[in-house]
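Consider a protein example.
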Amino acid sequence: MAKILICDDEPGLRTVLKRYANFDGHAVTEAADGGEAVDLCRENPFDIIIMDIMMPKVDGFSAVEEIRKFSDTPVIMLSARGEEYDKVLGFELGVDDYVVKPFSSKEIMLRVNAILRRSATKTDISSQTVHDVFEKEGLKADITARKVFIDGETVNMAPKEYDLLFFLIRNKNIAMPREKILTEIWGYDYFGDDRTLDTHMKLLRKSLGAYAHFIVTLRGLGYRFDG
């Protein structure tokens, strides 16, 4: 059973999502605005957060930005708009997934369960005793500690950037199809717009700076990490 925080100013939407989450065996806490969500996250540990963007008082972006100061709980962002700017901003803040309204509650729960499985897998990997570190030129990726260093300086990245980089490093010098990356990083039930992958890859390359060239785009196929 996972603990889910649903934050949306529409009571009807919260009720429907809660019904589906309860059906899947999850416990749900509700918040009507971003400020309330931040307070709840400070007081309680959640496994995942479903956060609307457009809300009174404190919007979703501001709430996630504040939550990220003390928690790395996965976040699914809800929006009535599908602009690229909104998605990029959300991903830069550390949002794990982005869903445009209208959507089906079943779709949301598929995404929730996929992220929960990925989180459990990362926990299992981090508990292993082998310390996994990759180094090439000025790039150092401490996979076990989930840390990345560029020329000796720590780089702070969004959760999905870490996931993408570490996955590519573990499969270095192998051509990885887009579908395989989406399946492994976003989960087996992922069926969203694969432009999400392109957006995250742009952000990852930006974070890697001078070492972005290690990630090679394979037109018509996917990506490869040259290591």
Observations:
- The CA atoms of residues 138 and 151 lie 5 Å apart.
- The chain has a mean pLDDT of 88.
- The radius of gyration is 18 Å.
- Helices lie at 11-23, 34-43, 60-67, 84-92, 105-126, 159-170, 178-186, 195-208.
